[in-house]
Amino acid sequence: MCAVLGCDSFEIVNLYAAELPTSGSLDLATPSPAWEEGRREIERAVRGSDTKAVLLGYGVRSPAGPQRTQYQEQLHWLADLLTSSGHAPWTYGDRPSHPSRWQRIAHRHSPGSSVYDLAPELLQQHEGGSLRMGAGNVAIQPTGA
Question: Could you name the domain of life of the organism this protein comes from (predicted)?
Fold first, then answer.
């Protein structure tokens, strides 16, 4: 992945900066400072002087309950941050998806090929500030756009 993105290393930061036992656990979580901590970690990484590319990889299903609004606000905030920092984000396939889903995308594209082999074909950079970022799979425009 790094070779396609033009970088030597990578760092993983999370929209929600707390460990969850299962993907459905966020549906049941109470409001948490982990959303704000996620913002701090993401902003530090995105605005870092050595950051050359941003590859989005997260689940696109909105959580249920009170966390739904937090998730959607986090995606809007992320869109604004990417625009203000000058980064046109990358995705594996045509929209963000959790890395655990990338093999499915690769298999649909070319059965038997690996995620890494198909990275030059499937990694897509999204220019212009519009990208399907999740939250019910709607296109989110940065606030200033």
Answer: Bacteria
Shortest CA distance to 97 belongs to which of 131, 121, 47, 73? 131
Q: How far apart are the first and last CA of the chain?
A: 29
Parallel, antiparallel, or unpaired: how do β-strands 90-92 and 55-56 relate?
Answer: parallel
**pTM recorded for the entire structure:** 0.83
Segment 81-84 long-range contacts (CB within 8 Å, at least 24 positions apart): 81/42, 81/43, 81/46, 82/46, 82/54, 82/142, 83/129, 83/142, 83/144, 83/145, 84/142, 84/144
The secondary structure of residue 15, as a DSSP letter, is: S
Phi, psi of 55 (to 5 degrees): -105, 120
The helix/strand/coil state of 56 is: strand
User: Is residue 14 exposed (0-12), middle (13-18) or buried (19+ Cβ within 10 Å)?
Assistant: middle
pLDDT digits (tens, 9 = 90+) for 37-80: 999 999 999 999 889 899 998 887 788 887 888 888 898 899 88
The beta-strand segments (E) located in 5-88 are 55-56
